[in-house]
Design a protein that fits this description.
This protein is an alpha+beta fold. 35% of the residues lie in helices and 14% in strands. A hairpin with a 3-residue loop joins strand 1 (30-34) and strand 2 (38-39). The longest helix is centred in the first third of the chain and has 17 residues, at 9-25. The protein is elongated and about 95 Å long.
Length: 292
């Protein structure tokens, strides 16, 4: 009975090394992957990034470690590094070749199952594709921020990430479309305005306003002033509250609805409910409108 042929590890490592050198010559930064498609972990001297990391890791300084121990940040196009003694040892243990898409000015849309592939075929513009074990890699020209789980079965691998090299793929690579860029943009959460305690007004004088429209127009102008503030928001909120109260605070026309509009505008600019209350109280005190 014929026994299945086992490919010697030395042969596999040579194939990985040849692939890595070929990709590097094309300007694609490469690194070896261990079994399970995981990169080589930090070496002992670089544990917890003690060495300062590499420049493209946005840390304090260059790493002098000769080994491929910084995952995607270890990817290189330097053939001397790839063939160095320490890297040769890594290739002997490697199960695959990986590359840093962002470093090659590429983005990989990793489609992990058939449903994700169907979605891409009806949503994304065509580009170069590479078949994977369970799905496909769609490769676009242009880098972007990497993100996992942007939708069911879809990951984005580009800057600060690595992708396994499977093969050259088919089709023509096209420019990274907005349809991919927007996948990592999350809908802004609705602004939740905290309840604020509005101090009661003292004013009980005669109303000088001829029509309710005068007060409404004043509140609307105050809202606009707060909304259009580009800097010194705290000070703008206080000064606006002071102006409103100096004009409308003594006659008793201001209602909770009016003050709620002002507080809402302030909180929409990032002010806390506590600060709104403090600013309102300080304005009342300045104008002598609080009970002693």
């Amino acid at each position: 009975m014929t026994q299945p042929t086992t490919i010697p590890r030395e042969h596999t490592s040579r194939e990985h090394l040849r692939t890595a050198l070929r990709l590097a010559a094309d300007g694609i930064p490469v690194l070896p992957l261990r079994a399970g498609k995981v990169p080589f972990g930090n070496c002992r001297r670089c544990t917890d990034n003690a060495c300062g990391g590499r420049p493209n890791m946005k840390t304090s300084g260059p790493c002098t470690c000769p080994g491929p121990c910084h995952a995607w940040a270890a990817a290189t196009t330097d053939p001397d590094v790839i063939q160095s003694g320490v890297w040769q040892h890594a290739w002997l243990r490697a199960s695959a070749v990986a590359y840093h898409p962002g470093g090659a000015w590429l983005t990989v849309v990793d489609l992990d199952d058939i449903d994700a592939v169907r979605w891409a075929r009806t949503t994304l513009p065509p580009t170069k594709t590479v078949s994977t074990t369970r799905g496909e890699h769609w490769i676009y020209r242009g880098p972007m921020q990497s993100a996992n789980g942007v939708r069911p079965g879809v990951d984005i691998k580009s800057t600060m990430a690595y992708a396994r090299w499977i093969g050259p793929g088919t089709g023509t690579i096209t420019a990274l479309p907005n349809a991919v860029r927007t996948l990592i943009v999350k809908e802004p959460a609705p602004v939740r305005l905290a309840a604020a305690t509005v101090p009661a007004l003292v004013g009980d004088g005669a109303c000088p306003h001829r029509t309710p429209a005068y007060l409404d127009r004043g509140i609307a102008m105050a809202e606009q002033r707060i909304t259009e503030a580009r800097e010194a928001v705290h000070a703008t909120v206080y000064r606006t509250f002071l102006a409103v109260l100096s004009t409308h605070g003594r006659c008793g026309c201001l209602t909770e609805a009016h003050t709620a509009r002002l507080f809402t505008a302030a909180q929409a600019k990032g002010e806390s409910a506590r600060h709104c209350t403090d600013a309102w109280t300080n304005a009342l005190t300045t104008l002598g409108l609080t009970h002693v």
